[in-house]
Structures are given as structure tokens and as C-alpha cells.
Amino acid sequence: MDIAASIEARVQWIKEILKQSGANGIVYGNSGGKDCSLVGILCKMATSNVTGVIMPCQSSQNYGSDRDDALMVGRRFDIEQIEVDLTQTKEAFLKALDGKFNSAEFDEKSVRMAGININPRLRMTALYAVAQSRGCLVAGTGNLDEATLGYFTKWGDGAYDFNPIADLTVGEIYEHLRYLDCPLCVIEKAPSAGLYPGQTDENEMGISYAVVDAYLRGGEAPKEVVERIERMRASSAHKRRMPLMYGIDTIRC
């Protein structure tokens, strides 16, 4: 891949989106990770009006390395950063839901995941509030691996106005970041959504991004790995489509 050409094409694409939409600029969620860092840099290359929103939500990691790395990228590329602390908001939300979704009669894993997925949904609500108040668009920060495996939250980080890195694998994300001289603290740390202490993407999914990258780009992979990837792709198909609408969508019986 010609990284320079890839960057230029994405920047021009963003410029065209802004021109067609009439938006004043761009807002994106900045967790200090690889994907949001690349999105922020590309957006800043397309327009001067870019705001990264740092949104800690309960996890101690959000208040430590996540915030530090997010601020460092903002300083390096002159991107405005603001902070919206959602911890008390989530606590109040959980209190309002008490007994409604965490009863002993419900599946323990489902209850746990429902609680975890509140975080990205609160963050997207905050992003759209900030963006609308400023007349801006919300940029998505998901990569191709995450989209394929369904490793994102429906109506959370899976909601945005445009995504300039949706076609890039994790390995390609890193190639772009190295070319752009992104801080090493972002490039060298293990990919993580930072949803809880010690969480990493690969441990949670049980599969490495390197293997997924190779498969997505036509490389060989063990049969059991291919089957796992395709199961995850199939089970998460509902996340990648718009809601089904009676009279418009046909359901196969």
C-alpha cells in the first residue's frame, strides 16, 4: 500500500464530505488509542476545526494512560481536546436501571456485557451533543478487523457520520501512524477499548489482529481460525446493517 497516497485520498474524501454537508468541522472520541489517533490526524489535515473528546467512564485506565496518550496526540498534531467525565452519569444510569436488567434470573454474561456497553453508548450521546452544538460531524474510529468481527457496540462506537479508516486493517492503521510520526505510546501499547482495568481487545476476542489481518487480505489461516472469524462475522451481521423495516426489508423464512 502507498501510505502517502492513502493519506492524501482520505484527507480529500473528508474535505468533500465537509463541503457537501456544510458542517463547520469534526468531532471525534479520543481514547488515546491507535484508531482514534489516526482519525484525528486525518481530520486535522482536512480542516482546522477538529475537536477530540476524552470521555473517562469508570475505568481507572481512562483517567491514566488513556487520557495521557490522548492529550499527547492532541498536542503533537495541534488538535483541540476537551474532556467529558461520564462516570457519574453511568452510575446514575445504573441506579435508574437497578433491578430492571440485572436480576438473578437473567444470564450473568449478558448482564455484564449490557453494563459494559453502556459506556460507548453514553460516549456517542456525548459526542453527538457536542457535535450538534458546534455544527460539526461525528467521525467514526472503527477499523476493518473490528467491523468484520463485530467487535464494536451497536449504537455506541458503531454510530457516526463518516469513518475515514473503515477499510484499514489493524496492521495498516499502524503503518499509517508510523508514517505520520504518531507518538510511540500509541503505537506500542496493546489495543484496548479501556472498558475495564486490564482489558485488551485480543484477550477478550480470543484471536490476534495479525491473524485476522492476514485472513482479510487473502492470506492463509488455520481452518479453526477461519471458522471462528466467519462465525463472529455472521453473528454480528445485525450490527452492520440499518434496522429492518416492515414493507421494505424482506425476511427469508
Description of the molecule:
This protein has 253 residues and is α/β, with parallel strands linked by helices. The protein contains 12 helices and 4 strands, in the order αβαβαβαααβαααααα. Helix 1 (3-21) packs across helix 2 (34-46) and helix 2 crosses helix 8.
Summarize the structure.
The chain is α/β, with parallel strands linked by helices and 253 residues long. The protein is built from 12 helices and 4 strands; from the N terminus they run αβαβαβαααβαααααα.
| Content-based structural category | alpha/beta
**Major sheet characteristics:** 4 strands, parallel
Distance between the termini: 43 Å
Shape: globular
Helix content: 40-55%
Task: Detail the poorly predicted runs.
Answer: none
CATH architectural category? 3-Layer(aba) Sandwich
The number of domains is 1
Average pLDDT, to the nearest integer?
90
Radius of gyration: 19 Å
Indicate the proportion of strand residues: 5-15%
CATH topology: Rossmann fold
What is the CATH superfamily label?
HUPs
In total, the number of strands is 4
Key attributes of the depicted protein:
globular, 4 strands, alpha/beta, 253 residues, Rossmann fold, 4-stranded parallel β-sheet, single chain, 7% strand
Secondary structure blueprint with pairings:
Layout: H1 3-21, E1 25-29, H2 34-46, E2 50-54, H3 60-76, E3 80-83, H4 87-97, H5 108-116, H6 118-134, E4 136-138, H7 144-149, H8 170-179, H9 184-188, H10 201-205, H11 209-216, H12 223-235
Parallel strand pairs: 1-2, 1-4, 2-3
Helix pairs in contact: 1-2, 2-8
